[in-house]
């Protein structure tokens, strides 16, 4: 190694954020700022190789947030109140990818749960825009086992429950749109209604809803 090369290597920063290989987005809708979210929507995207962003792996977060703006508009031209956080992580060992995590909590106001369908429509629009921006990865159709595993993981993440404590209570395959609806239940009686493949059958798009005990989820069975 020449002296110049050795000096260049010595000048390189050793503590970096690395490049971003994965984007994870979570959108939650809640009735009041200090209340729990009634529904969570999740999008997990692995970025294509080679990295087409800057050498440091920096992403223009403003473009990601702009793609997510439809989640603020449900049945109204006025945007809803929200809170947003962004978290970046990277490890220097092994194959663990560098990831950017973005969370948005939208405050709908009390008694607005009747608009849950509008929340889903707005989020699907936003997630489609984000997939177009990031480049949608090619994925195989979601299998039954993969859907159940994904549903358990996402329900546990969204509502801070033990994934292993969630038992399967119902399942339904929607082959026309490539999605699965999965019902999960805890020993205490909490129930979660999960859709895997929410956006055009893309396996990394999920909706999780915490259902009440009075709601009935019909078990259709696997196809």
Write up what this structure looks like:
By secondary structure, the protein is of the alpha+beta class. The chain folds into two domains: 19-138, no CATH class; 141-214. The protein is built from four helices and eight strands, in the order αββαββααββββ. It has an eight-stranded mixed beta sheet, with helices on both faces. α2 (61-68) runs antiparallel to α3 (116-134). The N and C termini lie far apart (62 Å).
What key attributes describe this structure?
223 residues; alpha+beta; 2 domains; 8-stranded mixed beta sheet; disordered C terminus
What's the helix and strand layout?
Layout: H1 3-11, E1 22-30, E2 37-46, H2 61-68, E3 81-89, E4 99-107, H3 116-134, H4 144-159, E5 167-174, E6 179-185, E7 191-196, E8 205-211
Parallel strand pairs: 1-4
Antiparallel strand pairs: 1-2, 2-8, 3-4, 5-6, 6-7, 7-8
Helix pairs in contact: 2-3
């Amino acid at each position: 190694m020449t002296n110049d090369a050795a000096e260049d290597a010595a000048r390189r920063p050793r503590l970096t954020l690395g490049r971003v290989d994965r984007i994870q987005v979570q959108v939650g809708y809640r009735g009041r700022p200090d209340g729990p979210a009634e529904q969570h929507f999740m999008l997990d995207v692995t970025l294509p190789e080679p990295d087409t962003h800057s050498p440091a792996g920096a992403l223009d977060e403003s473009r990601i947030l702009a793609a997510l703006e439809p989640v603020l508009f449900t049945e109204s031209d006025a945007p809803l109140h929200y809170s947003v956080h962004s978290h970046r992580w990277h490890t220097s060992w092994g194959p663990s990818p560098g990831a950017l995590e973005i969370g948005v909590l939208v405050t709908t106001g009390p008694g607005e749960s009747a608009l849950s369908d509008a929340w889903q429509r707005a989020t699907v629009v936003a997630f489609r825009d984000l997939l177009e921006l990031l480049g949608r990865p090619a994925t195989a159709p979601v299998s039954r086992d993969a859907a159940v595993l994904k549903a358990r993981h996402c329900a546990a993440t969204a509502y801070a429950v033990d994934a292993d404590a969630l038992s399967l209570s119902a399942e339904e395959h929607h082959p026309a749109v490539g999605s699965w609806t999965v019902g999960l239940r805890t020993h205490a009686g909490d129930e979660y209604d999960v859709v895997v493949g929410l956006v055009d059958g893309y396996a990394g798009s999920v909706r999780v809803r915490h259902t009440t005990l009075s709601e009935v989820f019909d078990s259709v069975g696997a196809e």
